[in-house]
Amino acid sequence: xxxxxxxxxxxxxxxxxxxxxxxxxxxxxxxxxxxxxxxxxxxxxxxxxxxxxxxxxxxxxxxxxxxxxxxxxxxxxxxxxxxxxxxxxxxxxxxxxxxxxxxxxxxxxxxxxxxxxxxxxxxxxxxxxxxxxxxxxxxxxxxxxxxxxxxxxxxxxxxxxxxxxxxxxxxxxxxxxxxxxxxxxxxxxxxxxxxxxxxxxxxxxxxxxxxxxxxxxxxxxxxxxxxxxxxxxxxxxxxxxxxxxxxxxxxxxxxxxxxxxxxxxxxxxxxxxxxxxxxxxxxxxxxxxxx
Length: 291
Known about the structure:
Blueprint: H1 6-32, H2 37-59, H3 70-93, H4 96-103, H5 106-117, H6 124-141, H7 150-173, H8 178-198, H9 211-234, H10 237-245, H11 247-259, H12 265-286
Helix pairs in contact: 1-3, 1-9, 1-10, 1-11, 2-8, 2-9, 3-7, 3-8, 4-7, 4-11, 4-12, 5-6, 5-7, 6-12, 10-12
């Protein structure tokens, strides 16, 4: 029975998204012992091609695929491909909670880049949210000559890449469909993965033990975005976002139980500051008069 309460329905969809993202993180670590990030994304994208074509065929949306705005699709997918590579690398280099906390800065980079790429207005509230988010990053990363490492840098840069992906997606959604966007996503990233993984003439074939993890990554990646999209169609972002924040404590527990990663209070504090900054921006966007 489907709940009548919109918030409860949105929460159910967000639980699906949270489980999907967490599954991707665990599967990404499992695969990293055999495949590098380029190979991982190659196989994930090929699985995505099968899923998108199959679902599009059943839904009758394949005729929506066209070659218009290929340059924008390419910029979107280069950004996304780069961000995913950095994200999967960070998963193997630093605690999972730090990766997820830094990923939450992506909406703040959208704030910073939107005036340049979309012509949106930069308000005082957005500036304040950006400053708070930067403070949160400093608390999470605590950069110094002793603590700064490539995993932290990769996680922070991946958030910028994901922000660019969101901006280019906004451009595309003004004139094209979800099926078209997803089709070019998986096709272009398959090509990028093939080039990146095969430039040295050596592409590792997944073992029988690795294929289930790869399938999980491919399915979970598409399912996560499907769940979030459905949640946002049911309830406003200010309602959905707090549920998304539950990813952090969940992945921190996963890291502690399965990988013996310490539960770092400062990571939670920094993530809370980042969350408040994001929430402040969302509320201001929904209430323009408060800007």
